[in-house]
Design a protein that fits this description.
- By secondary structure, the protein is mainly α.
- The protein has one domain.
- It has 8 helices and no strands.
- Helix 2 packs parallel to helix 8 and helix 4 packs antiparallel against helix 5.
- The longest helix is centred in the last third of the chain and has 36 residues.
- It starts with a helix and ends with a helix.
Length: 189
């Protein structure tokens, strides 16, 4: 019980250091959870657009510029990926992500959001379905690690929840694909 009390006291302390920024992170949590519930790739991309925009705002409010730039670029990337999957557009985003964020890296862990955003960029433009979500799982692991290290309550919670919900949705998509394969031979007879 002491460990649980200490955990909640720590969360409370972190929240009140930056209450407005943490509130934005918690709102992002709600939007982000909604994103990964969808099986439809386009809805996932649109919800992630809003989520990453909110996270970018939170990171700006916390003075975490590498993460803020990566998240805001991620938001633009998510939106644009709903309209095109062009490899040159993807490469342009990758280049901008690295050029804009790399100069702001002061600690090794500052690379985590850059890596997470890069993997997410590949996923949004080059993958679909389960493969897209697998790449996003790797990106979420990078972002979770970063958010945990910097003390972003909403950010760490959302990425942990993303890992769980995204895994669950991938399992559901696998089951759907297996059921479709089972039905095809039966329908042919």
């Amino acid at each position: 019980m002491n460990a649980l009390n200490a955990f909640f006291e720590t969360l409370n302390s972190i929240f009140w250091q930056h209450p407005w920024a943490q509130s934005i992170g918690i709102i992002a949590l709600l939007v982000g959870v909604s994103a990964f519930i969808h099986k439809d790739d386009q809805k996932l991309r649109l919800f992630l657009t809003v989520f990453t925009l909110l996270m970018g705002i939170q990171f700006m409010m916390l003075g975490l510029w590498s993460a803020a730039f990566a998240a805001l670029l991620g938001s633009a990337r998510n939106y644009i990926s709903t309209h095109t999957r062009n490899v040159w557009v993807m490469c342009s985003f990758m280049l901008v992500i690295w050029l804009v964020t790399l100069p702001n890296v002061e600690e090794l862990f500052h690379l985590l959001p850059i890596l997470g955003t890069s993997v997410g960029t590949w996923a949004m433009f080059r993958e679909k379905g389960i493969r897209m979500r697998m790449f996003m799982l790797v990106g979420s692991m990078c972002w979770f690690s970063h958010n945990y290290i910097v003390g972003s309550i909403g950010g760490a919670l959302i990425e942990a929840i993303f890992l769980i919900i995204n895994s669950r949705t991938m399992i559901m998509l696998l089951k759907d694909a297996r059921n479709e394969q089972c039905l095809k031979p039966c329908a042919a007879k």
